Amino acid sequence: MVEPLLTPVKPPFWNNPQVRAITFQVIALVATVAFGLYLFENTQDNLRRLGIASGFGFLSSPSGFDIIQSLIPYSAASSYGQVFWVALLNTLLVASLGVVLATLLGFIIGIARLSKNWLIAKLALAYIETFRNIPLLLQIFFWYFAVLRAAPAPRQSLSLGDTVFLNIRGLYLPAPEFQAGFGWVLAALGVAAGLVVFLVRWSRRRQAATGQQFPIFLASLALLLGLPLLTFTLAGAPLHWQIPELQGFNFRGGWVVIPEMASLLLALTLYTAAFIAEIVRAGIQAVSHGQTEASFSLGFNTGLTLRLIILPQALRVIVPPLTNQYLNLTKNSSLAAAIGYPDLVSAFAGTVLNQTGQAIECIAITMAVYLTISLLISLLMNLYNRRVALVER
Amino acid sequence: MAEVAKSRTPHPDLPPPASAVGVLGWVRRNLFSSPLNIALTLLAAYLLYAMIPSVLRWTLFDATWRGDSREACAANRGACWVFIRIHFEQFMYGFYPDAQRWRVNSAALLLILSAAPLFVRAVPGSVKLRLGLSILAIYPIIAFVLFRGGLFGLPEVETRQWGGLLLTLVIAGVGMAAALPLGVLLALGRRSKMPAIQTLCVTFIEFWRGVPLITVLFMSSVMLPLFLPAGVSFDKLLRALIGVTLFQAAYMAEVVRGGLQAIPKGQFEAAAALGLSYWKTMALIVLPQALKLVIPGIVNTFIALFKDTSLVLIIGLFDLMNIVHNATTNPAWLGFSTEGYVFAAAVYWLFCFSMSRYSQSLEKRLHTGHKR
């Protein structure tokens, strides 16, 4: 008996990958849309039942509350829309200061972590392991409630050379007062910057043509510092420092950093710096040791090796996670709500929401702002990545 | 000339100079090798000198350990650990009724006993896998019944009475157990070839990654009631759990995606050539390799999640952070916030640090196959 040859059987249609793919996608889409509609219906229902207004009309009605820190003119008579801008600026202020400070501290600690000096390396390690393993909120609370709230009253302020004062109301810094003629100094700075650009180009061209080097760093520094200083002296020192003074029960004059801002900034900086330090360390270690050896064998000294060989390659590894940390810092600044620093979440998604009851609008606006910032930064990141990515043949 | 040559005769039998080896050599190499290094060493030594004695004095030598009221601490300048001792039970269990705390303790003991074999190297991997999966499947049910009660004659303890470290661990544990599988699914969806699934997953991931957790928690407390039909209300803890899980799942998805992208195409093709279906390819070939690659990332996400549990204080849950904060504002015990925060920080630090150390050792042990 000869078995009949197996004839190819057409698989049932439900095993056809294309049919399956389309079915799954249709099911997923329908389920998502249905879920969305269900939520929408419920929300409409609830809003009607609770008598909550909807729409963005509330943005133009007066807010009726004060904000302890605002960068633009604001009073209780201003609108909720104004509150939004004040809050947004406060968020951006603390985030941008935090980014700058955390980067500086993070790079210092990251490099210290790789130091050949055993003590310094271990100190940096201890810093990193301590600060990144404690919740940020706890750190903010520590600086706010345990340190700054425990600061002395204005009359017993801690002072640094009688110019900087710290008390329970905040940190008082001398404020610069620009007088007539300070414009000349700024103009001199601009001229110096222009000259430096010119000088850099010229020295590069000369080095390419003749091989002779020019002490470009020192020359630029001298230009950038010297020219404005000279103008400053010639214009008769048109800058006055307004020093905070104790009058009655409080200080007047100078710049005040409110305790909420100070503790938030301090905690954000210390916390993020620990992460940035690890990123910097990983980035520098990612450059293979052969690169350093090759550079030394070409006769570069340590400084040049670091600047021309290691850093450009390390930055390629460092920058993407670094931007991620900046993003994290910006989002983490929303923890301000826990100590009452008037940022976007605290003032807008908190106070305004409670006063108007328009939860959906307030939360949506807040989330949209953070989403916009995130997407913008990741867009920039992708552009940068494309520029520095290794070009392979 | 002959004498000079003679003086260069090597002497392998002599010991190396004392300044090049041993403690002295180490100190010279690592602390005093150059002027800059000497300056740095002195600076660091000064920093340590300025910090360590005062810290030690505050935490240990001048601290108060005995007594049961704040008056006991008045005599000493150091830390008042009495504050912690008095509130210790509260910090651990929150407002969980005294008489029922044995339930929490036995749940903790059960977890420790059943999970202990996972950390013993002699236990074979297949046993570990089965044990781990069964713990994941069964333990949450046992723990929930024990904590919540209302069954088998156990009196009911409402979730708002849960607090302290117990609540922190519940949120972290549930978050981790739920965020990992959800994150894997999202990552697979993002890598999927079906455009609709991919778009849905990308939107989901980017949305949650783009907003701060605090707004998610805000949303879960003020917007969720609006989304649900009238009369339906969620437990506050459950709302926090959903928020934390969805948020961390998005981060987990990105971590897992990194692992998926690192798997060579040959592996997918080989699995297809063997006739494995999509799910079998993923479960048997791709995910075991991909997850192994990203263990550090997964643990980092877990650590982040553990730290993020402190944010639930925003919506009024009394986790470790909030219960400590609450105790420091107790009028009878004002002025001990430093002690409270230091204690809470130590507890969080212990958990996070041991997690990161465990992941490092795991990473070393799993680093097989690619080593030559």
Present the secondary structure layout.
The complex is a heterodimer of chains A (393) and B (372).
Chain A: H1 17-50, H2 80-113, H3 118-132, H4 136-148, E1 158-160, E2 164-167, E3 170-173, E4 175-178, H5 182-210, H6 216-234, E5 239-242, E6 245-247, E7 250-252, E8 255-257, H7 259-286, H8 289-297, H9 302-332, H10 344-356, H11 359-388
Antiparallel strand pairs in A: 1-2, 2-3, 3-8, 4-5, 6-7
Helix pairs in contact in A: 2-3, 2-7, 2-10, 3-7, 4-7, 5-6, 7-9, 8-9, 9-11, 10-11
Chain B: H1 2-7, H2 22-31, H3 35-61, H4 81-93, H5 101-115, H6 125-148, H7 164-190, H8 195-210, H9 213-222, H10 224-227, H11 236-261, H12 265-273, H13 278-293, H14 295-308, H15 320-328, H16 337-366
Helix pairs in contact in B: 4-7, 4-15, 5-6, 7-8, 7-11, 7-14, 7-15, 8-11, 9-11, 11-13, 11-14, 12-13, 14-16, 15-16
Notes on the structure:
The complex is a heterodimer of chains A (393) and B (372). Chain A has 393 residues and is an alpha+beta fold. Among the domains of chain A are: 80-169 and 258-283 and 318-388, MetI-like fold; 175-242. Chain A has helices at 17-50, 80-113, 118-132, 136-148, 182-210, 216-234, 259-286, 289-297, 302-332, 344-356, 359-388; strands at residues 158-160, 164-167, 170-173, 175-178, 239-242, 245-247, 250-252, 255-257. In chain A, helix 4 (136-148) packs across helix 7. In chain A, 30% of the residues are buried. Chain B contains 16 helices and no strands.
